[in-house]
Structure to design on (716 residues):
């Protein structure tokens, strides 16, 4: 149960949307697929789904090509939400599930289970247009997973949801992963990616600029964050060699340093000057890595 | 169930249940019931004032013979009652008072033949005056015949219509009667196809555009291939059309049958004994024509991103069918002109025009086969191109909605963009 992208390229005329992308996504895994707007994420998803053909390279699922015969194995939550506004929830979810090879009674049973799980059983006979945006989002999510896909593509699944519902959907995603689903997860919310994904890839101009295990990515990134909270002014730290970024919040500040040695120099600089409430050496956040990798390439 | 049929059934069901379908169909059916029962309805209103329906007139003349002859003629129509023994002044006074509808004075005119003057009051009816005039005509003819000493048999012989019959010689010639019948059928079929393309063509385009604008298309297209999706829509709407037409024909048939009593339904339209082969050709060309235009409609519908643009996008299709319709109306009167012959092979016109030629002329079989071949080939070709455009088009969202998008849509569906 592995999704493999091997040297996949997609060109639209002279424009290269995806450039030699190679990925491997095994079962029981949530793979983070990140990138700025227009980086080629949606194009990649559409190629995985077979909606557009790759210009070069191969995409395989269990060593076979993905076609309409496999559509019952695949679930897709597109970034642009799409449901029939005037159709009842039960009618359209059963219809969409049947198009993915489910029987009517199975689909109905499964739908009841999901609606119950998301605490919205009374929406079954409501029209989609009458639901709030967040609740439409839940229905959209159900439409992607109702037919028990083995490969699930989630493009911004939590947008427009309140924190309670985000937690609810996050739990559902983790459950699906534990049940053996391969999940491709795309989001601009880095904290969600850090929480859910072990492996990830950051796409920039169609090319993977970061790719691998989250922990290793952080380690190999080298730079660290230092958080200092002291009773005296620490503004002077910003001019120390090896400090790449400095953000001040009154008496506390956040620094990015080139490596761990720099943090030791900072520690020495601080000692003896007064009372230090916090001195914290942290791994860089995914957000930092993303901004660094995608931001610098713009220059 | 096969995905294709699930989609066909869904398209059909959602349309049948829609308010617009229920309303248009029931309004049409109500109109048909009204039309087929129009005679009963009018009679029901007439019964209310039957009293006033009898026209009371007075006849004044010095010639007893003319009066009785006139009476005999007019009383054949039982809506008249005739007063005789009045003087003309009395009669005129009665008309002025409103007691009588009119007074007729028959006088001796030129060459001893009768002449008449009708005095009418307010609210005189032209239909009644006409009946009176006709009755007078008979009186005059009889008087003239008597004067010339012509016997009754001769008069009957003169008045009898001439025996006239047309006999067709050879295979090629159609009798005018047959021509008229075929012309009737061809016209009905032309109009039906025109109407179908107009109604259901735009329905297909909006159906596709709705799914696209609600973005559900991206999910659909990842489950079902664009070709089967496109033809599922076309078939679903075709079933809907079949249902609607059957309802209309069924209700129309019942209405006509119940009210006319005698004669079959088809005879009512002058289509009593039409050749079966013509109906067969009609069905074949109708189906081919529907699929050709429906494929075009689905393709065009896939190019718009907003529902409001759908009508604008299918305008070229509407123009095509309007042009085809006008050419065929012209062709009804001149089916054997070279212009009609040429257009009967052009795909978008041939369903109408080749059928017209088959119906009205005796053309060799190979011409029909060739035309059906050209038509089938263009449907396949259009379906292939259409599926291509459809596949790219449904993933394309933008403000512009013009035919230029076709190029972009094809590019999107290609391997090398």
């Amino acid at each position: 149960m592995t999704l493999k992208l091997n040297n996949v390229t997609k060109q639209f005329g002279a424009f290269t949307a995806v450039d030699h992308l190679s990925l491997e996504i095994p079962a029981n895994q949530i793979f983070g697929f990140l990138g700025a707007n227009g980086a080629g994420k949606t194009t990649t998803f559409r190629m995985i789904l077979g909606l557009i053909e790759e210009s070069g390279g191969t995409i395989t699922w269990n060593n076979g090509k993905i076609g309409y015969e496999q559509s019952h194995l695949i679930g897709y939550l597109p970034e642009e939400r799409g449901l029939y506004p005037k159709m009842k929830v039960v009618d359209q979810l059963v219809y969409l599930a049947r198009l993915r090879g489910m029987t009517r009674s199975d689909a109905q049973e499964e739908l009841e289970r999901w609606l119950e799980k998301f605490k919205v059983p009374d929406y079954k006979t409501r029209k989609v247009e009458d639901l709030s945006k967040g609740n439409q989002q839940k229905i959209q999510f159900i439409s992607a997973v109702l037919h028990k896909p083995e490969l699930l593509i989630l493009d911004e699944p939590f947008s427009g949801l309140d924190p309670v519902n985000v937690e609810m959907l996050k739990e559902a995603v983790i459950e699906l992963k534990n049940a053996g689903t391969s999940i491709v997860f795309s989001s601009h919310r880095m904290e969600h990616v850090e929480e859910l994904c072990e492996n990830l890839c950051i796409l920039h101009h169609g090319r993977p600029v970061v790719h691998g295990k989250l922990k290793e990515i952080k380690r190999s990134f080298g730079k660290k964050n230092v958080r200092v909270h002291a009773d005296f002014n620490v503004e002077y730290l910003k001019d120390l060699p090896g400090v790449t970024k400095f953000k001040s919040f009154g008496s506390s500040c956040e620094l990015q340093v080139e490596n761990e040695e720099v943090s030791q120099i900072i520690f020495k600089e601080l000692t003896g000057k007064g009372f230090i409430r916090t001195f914290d050496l942290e791994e860089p956040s995914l957000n930092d890595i993303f901004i660094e990798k995608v931001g610098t390439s713009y220059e | 169930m096969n995905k294709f049929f699930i989609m066909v059934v869904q398209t059909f069901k959602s349309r049948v249940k829609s308010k617009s379908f229920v309303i248009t169909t029931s309004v049409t059916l109500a109109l048909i019931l009204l039309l087929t029962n129009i005679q009963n309805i009018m009679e029901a209103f007439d019964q209310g004032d039957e009293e006033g329906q009898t026209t009371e007139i007075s006849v004044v003349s010095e010639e007893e013979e003319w009066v009785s002859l006139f009476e005999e003629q007019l009383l054949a129509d039982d809506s008249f009652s005739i007063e005789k023994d009045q003087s003309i002044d009395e009669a005129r006074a009665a008309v002025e008072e409103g007691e009588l509808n009119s007074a007729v004075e028959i006088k001796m005119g030129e060459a001893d033949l009768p002449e008449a003057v009708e005095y009418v009051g307010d609210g005189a009816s032209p239909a009644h005056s006409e009946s009176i005039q006709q009755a007078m005509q008979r009186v005059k003819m009889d008087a003239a015949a008597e004067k010339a000493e012509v016997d009754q048999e001769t008069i009957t012989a003169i008045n009898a219509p001439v025996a006239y019959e047309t006999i067709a010689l050879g295979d090629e010639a159609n009798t005018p009667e047959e021509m008229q019948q075929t012309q009737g059928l061809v016209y009905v079929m032309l109009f039906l196809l025109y109407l179908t393309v107009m109604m259901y063509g735009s329905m297909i385009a909006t159906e596709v555009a709705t799914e696209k604008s609600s973005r559900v298309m991206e999910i659909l297209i990842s489950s079902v291939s664009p070709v089967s999706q496109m033809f599922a829509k076309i078939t679903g709407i075709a079933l809907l059309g079949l249902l609607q037409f059957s309802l209309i024909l069924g209700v129309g048939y019942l209405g006509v049958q119940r009210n006319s009593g005698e004669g079959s339904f088809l005879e009512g339209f002058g289509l009593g004994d039409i050749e079966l082969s013509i109906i067969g050709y009609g069905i074949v060309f109708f189906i081919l024509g529907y699929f050709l235009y429906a494929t075009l409609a689905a393709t065009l519908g896939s190019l718009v991103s907003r529902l409001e643009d759908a009508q604008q996008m299918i305008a070229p299709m509407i123009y095509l069918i309007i042009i085809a319709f006008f050419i065929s109306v012209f062709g009804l009167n001149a089916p054997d002109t070279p212009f009609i012959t040429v257009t009967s092979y052009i795909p978008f016109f041939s369903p109408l025009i080749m059928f017209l030629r088959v119906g009205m002329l005796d053309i060799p079989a190979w011409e029909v086969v060739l035309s059906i071949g050209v038509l089938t080939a263009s449907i396949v070709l259009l379906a292939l191109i259409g599926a291509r455009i459809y596949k790219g088009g449904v993933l394309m969202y933008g403000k512009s909605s013009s035919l230029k998008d076709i190029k972009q849509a094809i590019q999107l569906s290609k391997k090398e963009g």
About this structure: Chain B is about 70% helix and 5% strand. Residues 176-213 of chain B form the longest helix (38 residues). The mean pLDDT of chain B is 80.
